[in-house]
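The records we work with from here on pair a chain with its fold. The integers have meaning only within a learned vocabulary of local backbone shapes. A complete example follows; check for yourself that the lines match position by position.

:::
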Amino acid sequence: MPSNPNPSREEFSEKFQQACDRWNLERLYQDLTVAKHRQGLRKHKLLTPIEKACLRGLLCGFSPTEIARELSREPTGLRVDLSRGLYRYIETLVNTPLKDWRHAVSLLTEYTIDLNQFQVTNAKYSVTKFSPRQDWSTAPSASAFYGRIEELIQLEKWIVQERCQLLNILGMGGIGKTSLSVNLGGKIVDGFAYLIWRSLRNAPSIEEILTEIIEFISDGRITSLPASIDGKIGKLIEQLQESRCLIILDNWETLLISGNRGGNYREGYAGYGQLLRCVAEISHQSCLIITSREKPRGLAAYQGKSLLVRSLQLDGLDRLEGQYIFQSKGISVNPTQQDKLINYYRGNPLALKIVATDIEDLFGGDVENFLLQKSSVFGEIAALIEQHLQRLEEVEKQVVYWLCFNRGLTTIAELQADIVPPIQPRQILEAIASLQERSLLEKGSQGFTLQPVIMEYVTNNLLDQICQEVITSKIDIFNSYALLKAQHQDYLKDIQSKFIIQPIIERLLANFISCDRLQSYLQQLIKNWQRLSSTGIIPGYAAGNVLNLLVQLKTDLTNWDFSNLTVWQADLQSTNLHQLNFTNSDLTKSVFAETLNGIWSVAFSPNGEFLATGDLDSKLCLWQVQDGRQILSLKGHSNWVLSIAFSPDSQTMISGGSDNQVKVWDVKTGKCLKTLSGHKHWVFAVAYPPSASPTNQIIASGSIDSSIRLWHLATGECIKILTEHTSWIRSLAFSPDGRILASASEDHTIKLWDVQTGDCLKTLTNHTSAVWSVGFSPCGQLLASGGADQTVKLWNLETGQCLISWEGHTNHIRSVVFSLDGQVLASGSEDRTIRIWDIGSGRNIKTFQTDVGAVWSLAFNPQTQILASGSIEQKVKLWDITTGRCVKTWQGYTSWVQAIAFSPSGNILASGSVDNTIKLWNVESGVAIASLEEHQSWVTGVAFNPEGNLLASSSVDHTVKLWDLKTHKCLKTLKGHTSWVLSVAFHPQGQILASGGMEKQLLIWDVTTGTCIKVLDGHENRVWVTLFSPDGQILASGGEDSTVKLWNVTTGVCQKTLVGHTMRVRGLAFSFDGQIIASCSVDRTVKIWDLSSGKIKQTFSETDEIHSVAFNQDGNLLATASMDCTVKLWDVKTGKCLKILLGHERWVFAVAFHSVAELGEILASGSQDETVKLWDIDTGECLKTLRNPKLYENMNITGVTGLTAAQKETLQTLGAIEN
């Protein structure tokens, strides 16, 4: 046994060294490395030390068992390793299956060169070795050469084995063409009688270069040459036929025209092209190698895998090869830094050498400091890139510039659509081909882009040029290119904003000093362009670019004039455009906000062409997936659209709404074909069976009324009612064969139903809270579910067993959906995330942070890897699940008034809205005096402190904010809630604050410090409303659990629980004397409670849900806000409805009383119709209507082009006008 049972890498390298005496090991290592790459085994770029040791052992005649013994390895394990590794490399190399280890040695003997002979023993070719005459002229040293093993082997094979006559080594500057040609020549020189290397950097004439070569190859025997180029080339060909010569001509690109299509020769240098043609066409025994940054014209006809002319495109060095450059420069680089540098410079050896030197000279060898710099392109690298760019023709420059501005992979079709004025597709194709030949482009599966270092250099130059154009008013690039593409994928728009828009603004502000001066200057530019366009609109991107700059500057665009201009690619989704004038403008490809509200449901059509969305504003919208345009707005539901499903043929849709109805729609026309009535409450779920199902004429719906109805689609008849659930039905899904219907309920269960009989087959009971969503896997063997217990579960349908329960979400899970192939499951939650789960491994493989509120609905596109999500934030997003990127956002806009409160003086009214803002109104004048805008989602509650100098607000963004009413600034953000905060209330003394939300808890805050001082637990579900008693001793709360709880403020103990409502409690009000408390509920009742006894004194019934209640000052009147769009006034003693106040057009969410000096006692109401109304309670007259201007209030779109009819309708809904 060897003395060392575990040899080191160094000891491995010492084993079987006798193989060096007979075999060219370095050549074998290289060849087998290439074979290893072809096997796809790139974890180790080169052969490992043990693989080399095993190879040497085999070549010395040792068996695998003997090799194992020598290497202190277990024989069986080594034989397995050989079978999986070295034997496979040998088979790939010789293209012959191995029989055993002896056969491997036999095959390698046939393949390789025996160093004791002068003949190559491979039967495919025979080459005599020479003592060549060599002229390397000014060729650089071959010592500093890194990697390129595979390329050397490939070139050697072409030259030595396949006898190629002409080789073209292509690559961008610095990629290593020259070094490769020198090393290749030195490696194979023994196979030639003559080698001559010449640089063409100084562009010698063809006559000069031909003379030098002929004189060298002829050993000076030919002293008199023909005068013509043809004659000289003929003489050279004779020499190449007579002797085996290797000619290497470096820097061929210096012979080609700059600023012209790649490959065309400069005037006076066409003879070089003639030389190449002759070398390619005429048979001889020599080889001409040229290196070039561009492929010369005229060689395509001679080039091919079986022909004698070949091209090799050089890519950059990989990580292992690149590390030698840093080592040679003495730079210490960790793997992460090394990867960043090599990737950024795409492994360009010259660039890496320059960078290594700069890191040493300018940054003291500190790599991390270098990487933190904003620019990595300067000095010699910039000069290298500029050499390339100077050679481009106009169309090539246009392509490069568009790739810089687009920032991502760009297709030829996109380039065709972008370029103005338009050019022929043929020109773009030729430009792309030329740029590829120049090694400036990178090709991906979905288009082309630039290398990072090229993109940075060109972008910086373009930004400087654009700023100079703007400053001088001499517009060229600024009008020819879009700085930001409004219809781009979201992540690319973010990149354009960061790397193009913002840097331009910074440069311009450095010149104009202030935003105001810059804005005034840009406004004057627009006026100048309008004068120029008096005879017709001038096409281009300038006006759209200005708008995007102004939006980034947060300019107030009220009354700006953009009429008679081409306003292309302006992203105006979240921008107020009050009174802006777009008259007669072309708005092609500009993007505006949509009339979307909170998106409760999304669904793709089975053919993948359409996306349907249902929102909280009674709209069902149909979008064309390909271009993102809204093509239909389906109107019929009187309020929230809660569920959507497409028919299997994509021709019809069904929807369920808060109007208790199911509707059937024609997808082509948008017409409502049927309305199915029968449910007694909101319809949260609808489902279509698959087309192949025997039940495909049956559709299903599920409701808050705890029932599931099965409908005959053709007749509209309800054929079955399934009633075993005891609470709300949240989700329905048909199995792939249509025979089973799954239902998810707030009763914590999932039920499986036989569709034909209506029998309940199984009840799945592993969830501990409400189940919000169910979905079948495409194979029909699994069922997924998600719910309020924050878990995603997978069920075996046959056994009804829960197979796995995934945790990770931190709030209710609203939606689960399988991908079409059933490999992954997506889940969306109120925690603002989407998680992707791998079914096979059971792992959470991706998590998307949505940067919006709760994710309410998910849908997979059946034809792609795109996932759609709908959220409370009035947004629909499309996600690429392979990259995790958001590729498209539809941004809605609405401003429902959710909450209102009077200041103690009654002079100011605060209103909180779903547009994330709080408005402060002067009650007497009805004018908005301030807008408080720091919340990131819906504002759900507002409350003044007793002094009237502070305002508290609660929000779906999980925070409570405190505002200074003098400065209108946010003083503090109170963080402690982990989900939506639904209500907020000040203590009568103003020192503490209470808030309640989705977590079932009430939080008590110290107003001065902003810290949470108490947490009150007791509710079984969400806390919708909180309110202090007038004396401050009691805190009342109303919850999803249908109860009102009364808490001792000092101790935090729940003193009483008032039970009587049957559904969630939405509003509370104390009488001013604190003796009674009123509560209102989704159960359509108001209850008056005696505070001391906790008993119900009075119950008022309404026809619809009640969201808010308020007592007047003397406690005789009670106001209610209802979903029937009315405000009602009730006599507290008799329980009679005294007045119904009409005027709101949508649901009323909030009411509040106050006495105002000029107006007396008034009532305020806030509504889904985006208004606050002030009422005279004696007459029932509406005194004032307070409405915030809409997003596009009085924006003039008369005569605009580039918009569809549906888009115009949307803009008008958002306030635009058309004269």
Observations:
- The first helix runs from residue 9 to 14.
